[in-house]
């Protein structure tokens, strides 16, 4: 792009798009003294709300939360009329803000940017408009909107239709008259579901062409009263904070309870209450695992299908309207009388998945089964989301590489924080791909992005830095992170526009960050606080301080899923365990959601067994098949202070099924009520009980193994010593998962991982102090098995450790001592993992891998023992 320097305007920043994000970006940069210009293809401000004017268009986030929060004056001067504002009112609000802040003087309307190229020599962007106008800017900021590139499927004969044709995303400004006309609507996504009831009231005949039925809940829209508005304004400071650090950008969140914990009657009561209240997240927020566990999801999905059946009078039509994919894995939808519309005599439904559209004819639509004559054709077929708007501009970074080429048409999508991408210095994407954006209240995401970008630009100017660019390493990490988080949920298990599935030929891949706006804000703030690590920059001619120049990436080789869990726990804001009493810690340490859904096993039995001085509970998992089975006696972790049978429910079930063994999970007595050596004695008594009463629980007494994680791994190692020292029983194997083996904190792993990786050094000190009676106990081999003089004669062992765990080195030291004593040892370090990953298979792929490894090791060990 050769530029005529005499005609080129030079700016600090160019912003593309005059929607909510572009307007706020303009305001922030202009207030900070930058020369900035916004270019907008439309004739006025509004962005998405300028173009999407179709009948029934309204916001699906409550109006009182769908507005700017940066100005209390603007907040108090604008009053919304209803719970969910219609498009004209939202557009009026945008115009009100543009007028109040006098933004139009720096916006050029009816101007489409067609190309932008980074000049590596000048360290700026050269930008070309459709009319040939050119400008340069140091910063190129896209505020294009995630849903601004309309999608019309390439139907055969599309240009032959003689009637009127519209797309919901490019609706004309003048009213479209449907009176008495035969109207066809293709698509039943959010825009279709909003438009269909409105069009049906006017059309002579409406035919809906549906490819995929949708879950939709009633909006229950209503006018806002003055009391609600007054209370909202009064409490908006608090509401703003709740929205900023929430999951979806609204001041509420999921109830911390599994759908599987309630009875069907209780679930139905709560779902019905949510249905009557209405709202985008009301039903979903009843439980915290609807988006994670298929079984939990089905409880909500089944409820909505039942509602459809009750509302739609024609059973055949109702059946066509019933979705079968996972609920809330497509964009959640709320409606006003959508399902009721199918009870109208002038509305019919065509299933184009069963009978696909073959072509658009001069007079209508021809499917595989019939022809439909139409006067008006409405495409409610959505958008080429997230990447589509960016690809519509020929954006070229360093070495003249286009963004479309770099991302391989979306197949190799990589960003850092969803804000920047390597090879494109000084380019910022507002609410871009791999940010929370479309999964959230967009206003919260927009303000967060704009504030972050504005602060970043201020930082660069203050420290005389130029050519600000994400590193390849940083964007690789972030992209892995986005995929990993999405894969923890059901979001990637459904074809949706989140996955790019609505665009023919578009590569599949989850396009957003699914970790929530609160967690995302914490991560972005963390990056900024570290001097924008993960980015590189160079000093300008005015700069002198090299310390502000960043190179490389601060993240280590921690697994992206594990890192997300850490950030999620950080965002929860729970106090460290060592600041709690043991009782408080036991209540706080409920991490069952991380384990995932429990597998079915043939039999689960709860018992109590005798131990010295009392009884303890055990839970016995029996696999399918005929016994006698080998057995694993399993001890849960928790520093001998917390934890219970429920903590390890999921891994115990998985081990029973995969190893084909009975698993006896032991609920030993906890400290400080029962200090050392009670836990060890209870654990040893449990394995003796299994050997003695093996026949009663279908166990082969010659094939008994012990195992456990963390403190449970300590107990498994100790029980192996006790069985050797005290006359049995004979053990076939010991499975030690990141075991505690020494009362000491002087290892390299304690130094490297003392804080920030779930289990901390301070927490271990707290655990040991509660467990031991005195320092002398810590030298006892039955507390610190690494200190045992002789480790010979012990059963073969599996020792699994985690790279980011304070206990890593002592577990590996114990494995080495076992080997030196002639014990057969299988030793594996999961480099990217954190402590506790073994009981997190629901969210960590490596947790699953470790459980499978342990099951295979157990099977092998059991198979080497002669059966009875």
Helix content range: 25-40%
Number of strands: 28
Q: How far is the N terminus from the C terminus?
A: 82 Å
Query: Which structural category do the helix and sheet elements fall into?
Result: alpha/beta
Averaged pLDDT: 92
- What is the number of helices? 25
Instruction: Characterize the main sheet.
Output: 8 strands, mixed
Give the amount of beta strand, in percent.
Answer: 15-25%
Please state the overall shape, judged from the principal axes of the Cα atoms. Answer: globular
What does this structure look like?
The chain has about 850 residues and is of the alpha/beta class. The chain has 25 helices and 28 strands. The strands form six sheets. Strands 1, 2, 3, 4, 5, 6, 17 and 18 form an eight-stranded mixed sheet that branches. An eight-stranded mixed sheet has the order 21-22-24-23-25-26-27-28, with helices on both faces. The chain has a five-stranded parallel sheet with strand order 7-16-8-9-12, with helices on one face. Strand 1, helix 1 and strand 2 form a beta-alpha-beta unit. The longest helix has 21 residues, at about 440-460. It is globular. Residues about 1-5 have low confidence and may be disordered.
List the helices and strands and how they pair.
Layout: E1 9-16, H1 20-31, E2 36-39, H2 48-51, H3 72-77, H4 87-100, E3 107-108, E4 113-119, E5 124-129, E6 134-142, E7 164-167, E8 182-186, H5 190-200, E9 205-210, E10 216-218, H6 226-234, H7 236-244, H8 264-277, H9 294-311, H10 315-320, E11 333-335, H11 338-341, E12 347-351, E13 357-360, E14 364-367, E15 371-373, E16 376-379, H12 388-391, E17 394-396, H13 403-406, E18 427-429, H14 442-462, E19 465-470, H15 472-488, H16 517-529, E20 535-539, H17 560-572, H18 582-588, E21 603-611, E22 614-622, E23 629-635, H19 649-659, E24 662-666, H20 678-692, E25 699-709, H21 711-725, E26 733-737, H22 748-752, H23 761-771, E27 797-804, H24 808-820, E28 825-834, H25 845-863
Parallel strand pairs: 1-2, 1-6, 2-3, 4-17, 6-18, 7-16, 8-9, 8-16, 9-12, 10-11, 23-24, 23-25, 25-26, 26-27, 27-28
Antiparallel strand pairs: 4-5, 5-6, 13-14, 14-15, 19-20, 21-22, 22-24
């Amino acid at each position: 792009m050769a530029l005529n320097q005499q005609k080129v305007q030079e700016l600090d920043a160019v912003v593309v798009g005059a929607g909510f994000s572009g307007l706020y970006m303009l305001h922030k940069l202009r207030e900070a003294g930058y020369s900035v210009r916004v270019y907008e293809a439309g004739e006025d401000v509004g962005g998405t709300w300028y173009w999407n004017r179709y009948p029934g268009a309204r916001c699906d986030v409550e109006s009182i939360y769908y507005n700017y929060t940066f100005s209390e004056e603007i907040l108090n001067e604008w009053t919304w009329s209803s719970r969910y504002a219609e498009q004209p009112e939202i557009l009026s609000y945008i115009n009100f803000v543009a007028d109040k802040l006098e933004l139009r003087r720096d916006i050029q309307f009816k101007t489409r940017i067609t190309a932008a190229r980074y000049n590596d020599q000048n360290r700026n962007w050269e930008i070309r408009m459709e009319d040939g106008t050119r400008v340069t800017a140091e910063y190129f900021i896209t505020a294009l909107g995630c849903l601004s590139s309309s999608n019309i499927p390439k139907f055969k004969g599309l240009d032959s239709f003689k009637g009127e044709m519209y797309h919901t995303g490019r609706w004309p400004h003048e009213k479209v008259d449907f009176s008495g006309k035969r109207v066809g609507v293709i698509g039943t996504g959010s825009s279709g579901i909003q438009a269909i009831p409105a069009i049906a009231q006017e059309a002579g005949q409406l035919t809906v062409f549906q490819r995929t039925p949708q879950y939709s809940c009633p909006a229950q829209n209503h006018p806002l009263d003055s009391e609600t508005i007054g209370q909202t304004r009064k409490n908006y400071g608090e509401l703003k904070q709740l929205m900023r650090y929430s999951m979806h950008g609204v001041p509420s969140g999921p109830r911390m309870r599994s759908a599987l914990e309630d009875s069907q009657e209780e679930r139905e009561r709560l779902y019905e209450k949510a249905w009557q209240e209405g709202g985008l997240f009301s039903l979903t927020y009843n439980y915290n695992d609807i988006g994670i566990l298929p079984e939990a999801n089905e409880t909500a999905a089944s409820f909505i299908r039942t509602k459809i059946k009750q509302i739609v009078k024609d059973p055949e039509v109702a059946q066509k309207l019933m979705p079968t994919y996972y609920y809330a894995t497509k964009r959640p939808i709320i409606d006003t009388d959508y399902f009721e519309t199918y009870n109208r005599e002038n509305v019919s439904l065509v299933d184009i998945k069963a009978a696909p559209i073959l072509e658009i004819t001069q007079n209508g639509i021809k499917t595989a089964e019939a022809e439909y004559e139409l006067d008006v054709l409405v495409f409610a077929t959505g958008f080429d989301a997230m990447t589509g708007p960016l690809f519509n501009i020929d954006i070229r970074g360093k070495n003249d590489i286009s963004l479309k080429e770099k991302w391989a048409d979306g197949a190799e999508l990589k960003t850092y924080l969803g804000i920047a991408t390597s090879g494109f210095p000084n380019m910022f994407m507002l609410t871009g791909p791999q940010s929370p954006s479309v999964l959230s209240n967009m206003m919260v995401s927009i303000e967060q992005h704009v504030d972050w970008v504005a602060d970043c630009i201020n930082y660069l100017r203050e420290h005389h830095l130029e050519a600000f660019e994400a590193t390849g390493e940083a964007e690789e990490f972030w992209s892995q992170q986005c995929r990993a988080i999405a894969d923890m949920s059901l979001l990637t298990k459904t074809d949706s526009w989140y996955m790019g599935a609505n665009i023919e030929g578009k590569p599949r891949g989850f396009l957003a960050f699914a970790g929530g706006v609160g967690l995302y804000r914490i991560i972005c703030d963390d990056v900024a606080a570290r001097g924008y690590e993960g980015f590189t920059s160079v000093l300008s001619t005015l700069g002198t301080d090299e310390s502000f120049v960043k190179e490389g990436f601060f993240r280590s080789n921690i697994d992206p899923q594990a890192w997300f869990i850490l950030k999620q726990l950080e965002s929860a804001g729970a106090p460290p365990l060592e600041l709690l009493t043991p009782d408080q810690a036991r209540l706080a340490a409920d991490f069952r959601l991380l384990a995932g859904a429990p597998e079915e096993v043939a039999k689960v039995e709860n018992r109590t067994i005798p131990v010295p001085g009392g009884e303890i509970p055990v839970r016995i998992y029996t696999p399918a098949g005929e016994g006698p089975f080998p057995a694993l006696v399993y001890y849960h972790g928790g520093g001998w202070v917390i934890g219970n049978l429920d903590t390890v429910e999921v891994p115990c079930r998985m081990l029973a099924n995969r190893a084909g063994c009975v698993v006896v999970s032991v609920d030993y007595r906890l400290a400080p009520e029962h200090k050392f050596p009670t836990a060890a004695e209870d654990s040893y008594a449990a394995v003796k009980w299994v050997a003695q009463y093996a026949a009663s629980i279908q166990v082969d007494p010659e094939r008994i193994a012990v195992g456990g994680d963390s403190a449970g791994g300590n107990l498994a190692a100790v029980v192996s010593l006790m069985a050797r020292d005290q006359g049995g029983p004979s053990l076939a194997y010991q499975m030690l998962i990141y075991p505690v083996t020494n009362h000491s904190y002087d290892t390299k792993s304690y130094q490297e991982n003392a804080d920030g990786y779930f289990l901390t050094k301070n927490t271990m000190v707290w655990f040991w102090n509660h467990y031991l009676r005195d320092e002398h106990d810590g030298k006892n081999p039955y507390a610190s098995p690494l200190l045992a003089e002789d480790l010979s004669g012990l059963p073969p062992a599996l020792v699994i450790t985690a790279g980011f765990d304070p206990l890593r080195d002592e577990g590996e030291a114990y494995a080495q001592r076992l080997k030196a004593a002639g014990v057969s040892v299988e030793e594996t370090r999961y480099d990217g993992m954190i402590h506790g990953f073994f009981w997190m298979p629901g969210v960590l792929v490596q947790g699953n891998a470790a459980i499978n490894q342990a099951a295979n090791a157990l099977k092998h060990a059991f198979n080497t023992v002669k059966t009875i």
